[in-house]
Amino acid sequence: MARFGHRQLEYFIAVANAGSFRRAAEALYISQPSLSTQIGAMERELGAALFYRHARGVNLTPVGRVLLREALTTVAAADRAYRLARLAADGSTGDLKFATITSIAAGLVPRALERWRINRPGALVSMTEFRNPIALEQSVRDGQFDFAIGPKPGTTFAYMQSLGAEEFVVLLPREDPLLKEKQVSLAMLSKRRWVLFTPDNGIFRVHESIFARENLIIEGAAFTSQTDAAVNLAAAGLGPTIVPSNAVPEHLKPNLRPFHNRYLREVFAYAPDSLDPFSGSFVTELGTVVAEDATVGAD
Fold first, then answer.
1. What is the pLDDT of residues 87-119, one digit of tens each?
2. Which of 46, 167, 249, 269 is deepest in the core (most CB within 10 A)?
């Protein structure tokens, strides 16, 4: 029985993404007849059409949608195998490909990468951020990334490493009277209108947990899916918000206040397989940054 080759799958993915044989051929730097021949051979092998053809381009058929889902996973896994083999052949440099959530991408990752790259100037780094930890977890399970950095996943992975915990704090508007306090409680802020997150951001669930812990129903002044937008809206006076302390830029650190009853979320690195030494060295550096951040938050 014949099998689709790696290149055929890449061609198919390109056409699906472009919605056009012509645009896909241009992106792949091959002729449109050659691309059409490859897709046609795949369709003959399957005995089913992969695309609906029409004057303005193409759309996936139900069979095509099934193949696209599997093709993305297969191509990602093959690319990962190649990169890991190249890394094994030359341990002096490598290719770091990982995913994380938005708040960690804004706060912890840049500091860790800056330190880690000092002794690895030739390292190639590819990072993708997700707003939702569930989507992050699924992307790694599908083989799209070597590892993930985020909250503890809901299911078990072959590699799971706790890196410490990040602290969630209240970000108050500038010149807020509560800034005279060293710590705050939700009771102090129960009458305020808040800057809140939409459900597609993982911090939404943190807010739910914190407010439920105090048995409070909070009114929103603004709703956003972006961590940096929540920070800026709160600082501008629209209302307080709750974010990881590491996601707040230095010039707004004076606006942060911890809770009397601290709220911590554990940070994990996880992957479908054990990490190679190259990736492991970055995770170690990130763990150091998490620990330093926790020490500052406890002061």
1. 655 555 678 899 999 889 988 999 999 999 888
2. 269
Look at residues 167, 194, 176, 199 and name the one whose alpha carbon lies nearest to residue 296.
167
Which pairs count as long-range contacts for 104-107, CB under 8 Å and 24+ apart, including other chains? 104/149, 104/150, 104/166, 104/244, 104/246, 104/247, 104/267, 105/129, 106/227, 106/228, 106/246, 106/247, 107/166, 107/244, 107/245, 107/246, 107/247, 107/248, 107/293
User: Residue 47 has what DSSP assignment?
Assistant: T
Q: Strand 241-244 and strand 159-171: pairing?
A: antiparallel
Question: Whose CA is closest to 218, among 241, 201, 202, 235?
Answer: 241
Q: Are 8 and 40 in contact (CB under 8 A)?
A: no
Give 143's DSSP letter. Answer: T
Q: Is the pLDDT of residue 10 over 60?
A: yes
Structure tokens at 236: 């501008």
**Where is average pLDDT lowest: 55-59, 93-97, 254-258?**
93-97
Q: Dump pLDDT digits (tens) for 141-190.
A: 988 999 999 999 999 999 999 999 999 999 998 889 999 999 999 889 88
Q: Rounded to whole angstroms, how far apart are CA atoms 267 and 254? A: 24
- Residue in the structure block whose two tokens are 């899916």: 225
Cα distance between residue 15 and residue 39, in whole Å: 9
Cα 197 to Cα 218: distance, rounded to the nearest angstrom: 12
